[in-house]
Specification:
The structure is a single chain. The chain is α/β, with parallel strands linked by helices. The protein has 2 domains: 229 residues, BirA Bifunctional Protein, domain 2 (2-Layer Sandwich), CATH 3.30.930; 223 residues, no CATH class. Helices cover 44% and strands 16% of the residues. The chain contains 15 helices and 11 strands. The strands form 2 sheets. Strands 1, 2, 3, 4, 5, 6, 7, 8 and 9 form a 9-stranded mixed beta sheet that branches. It is globular. It binds adenosine-5'-triphosphate and magnesium ion (3 copies). Its EC number is 6.1.1.7.
Length: 468
């Protein structure tokens, strides 16, 4: 039965609220008190102190739909059906409360009864030694035992601390979506078996010496991709055709005059724009501002990548600020901040985009020239200094130059780039010591006083300028 993305989110949260979970709103993308993390990339991330026992949770059962950014997936966007840089992770968490025998049947019931997914299309992966999970899957659910696969990497851990085996749920989307290789199975990188949900059973505490001590209070941490579930429920070929993303594709298609579903390459660009537009809108909503370091740099990099894909579709003018209207509409009644702070968000994005458009043209022609020269000289690696000049003068993030070079079968000398970058930092340090005024690139024209709102982003911006 068709369900909108927003209905699906609601259904999930209600299902777990009915099972004793405290329902909390999504946390900001900016982690609180966690310098180890650039941005929230999983539903469990804001709960780390509860898992480690550092802090007491407000309730032993919690459910959320968490905004997530994973830049590690950036190259996959538009190339796989299932990856975005920005997505929502639906999750239910147990802090020393319920464990495997509750969570497995719940997940199964939610998928097969609430969402009415066909049980015979579902597959499950478990950690090879996790007989307890195997027993519960076979005895407490109707999963086909032949659809349970054992995978060595189904173990979740980061350094020391709470860790444990996990169990993933996949849906078989049919042979025609697969890679056709004889060993194609859940876990294969192709689009046939779609991973929709990961159930993590944190039952050990890994000590400094590498020992796995069973935890007295075992935890549950699960994560299901909202867009992936929506693609299944809405019977769409990829996440990008769901109502959570498609309006932005339509927008980009309208602005560029490029039709969707006509050509593989332009489809990738339309998908990249749809994903990146959502990412940047939500990042700015959460108080992130473009800068040359940290999360500000992630934002800048994603925005510039979107602009470049816009150019590939022939869009020559700034278009990302207006995409915020479309994004805000998608999340109406869900992320009020997008609507309430829309003018501010659009302004931040517009300033950054306009500036980038100006330098992009110049930078591209410089890079084109360099590529010609490399080609003529029979070389394949671009000098790091030139890469740095593109970064410093023309605002090309390292990854952008590298990506353009790769598209032309060239590469960038990373060491040379890093050296030039370090030299620049040293000059800046010197200048600071000599008490010279260091110019703040890219943000100088953003007039704080003229911003017509009093949101968190405004104060974050001051921090941001200060840091620069
Ligand atoms: P995949 O193997 O497909 O990259 P994953 O194993 O990295 O996914 P998890 O870290 O287990 O994903 O995250 C839990 C869930 O979040 C996944 O099962 C999936 O539904 C969703 N998810 C993860 N990464 C993305 C992404 N980049 N875009 C959309 N949804 C995602
Ligand atoms: Mg992944
Ligand atoms: Mg996976
Ligand atoms: Mg996983």
């Amino acid at each position: 039965k068709y369900m909108s993305g927003n209905e699906l989110r609601e259904k999930f949260l209600q299902y777990f609220a009915q099972r004793g979970h405290l329902r909390l709103p999504s946390f900001s993308l900016i982690p609180e008190n966690d310098p180890s993390l650039l941005m929230i990339g999983a539903g469990m991330a804001p709960f780390k102190p509860f898992f480690t026992g550092k802090m007491k949770p407000p309730h032993t059962r919690i459910t959320t739909s968490q905004r997530c950014v994973r830049t590690g997936d950036i190259e996959n966007v538009g190339r796989t059906a299932r990856h975005q840089t920005y997505f929502e992770m639906l999750g239910n968490f147990s802090f020393g409360d319920y464990f495997k025998k509750e969570v497995i049947p719940w997940a199964w019931e939610f998928l097969t009864k609430e969402l009415e997914l066909p049980a015979d299309k579902l597959w499950v992966s478990i950690y090879p030694k996790d007989e307890e999970a195997y027993k519960i899957w076979t005895e407490k659910t109707s999963v086909n035992p032949d659809h349970i696969v054992r995978m060595e990497d189904n173990f979740w851990e980061i350094g020391t601390g709470p860790c444990g085996p996990d169990s993933e749920i996949y849906i078989d989307l049919g042979e025609e979506r697969g890679c056709g290789k004889p060993d194609c199975a859940p876990g294969c990188d192709c689009d046939r078996y779609l991973e929709i949900w990961n159930l993590v059973f944190t039952q050990y505490d890994r000590t400094e010496s590498g020992e796995y001590r069973p935890l007295v209070k075992k935890n549950i941490d699960t994560g299901a991709g909202l867009e992936r579930l929506a693609s299944v429920i809405q019977e769409k070929p990829t996440n990008f055709e769901t109502d959570l993303l498609y309006p932005i594709i339509e927008y980009a298609s309208r602005i560029s005059g490029v039709e969707y579903n006509k050509d593989k390459k332009t489809d990738i660009s339309l998908k990249v724009i749809a994903d990146h537009a959502r990412s940047i809108a939500v990042m700015v909503m959460d108080g992130i501002l473009p800068s040359n370091e940290g999360r500000g740099y992630v934002l800048r990099r994603i925005l510039r990548r979107a602009v470049r894909h816009g150019r590939m579709l022939g869009i020559e003018k700034a278009f990302l600020a207006d995409a915020v209207d479309v994004v805000a509409e998608i999340y109406r009644g869900v992320y009020d901040g997008l609507t309430e702070r829309k003018d501010y968000i659009k302004k931040v994005i517009n300033i950054e985009e306009e500036r980038f458009h100006q330098t992009l043209t110049q930078g591209m022609s410089l890079l084109d020239e360099e590529i010609q020269q490399l080609s003529a000289a029979g070389k394949t690696v671009l000098d790091g200094e030139i890469g740095f000049k593109l970064y410093d003068t023309y605002g090309f993030p390292y990854e952008l130059t590298d990506e353009i070079l790769h598209e032309n079968d060239f590469s960038l000398d990373k060491d040379g780039f890093d050296k030039a970058m370090e030299a620049q930092r040293e000059r800046a340090r010197q200048a600071r010591q000599e008490n010279k005024r260091v110019d703040i690139p890219d943000l100088r024209e953003l007039d704080v006083e003229k911003l017509s709102c009093d949101c968190a982003a405004k104060s974050a911006k001051i921090v941001c300028i200060w840091k620069n």
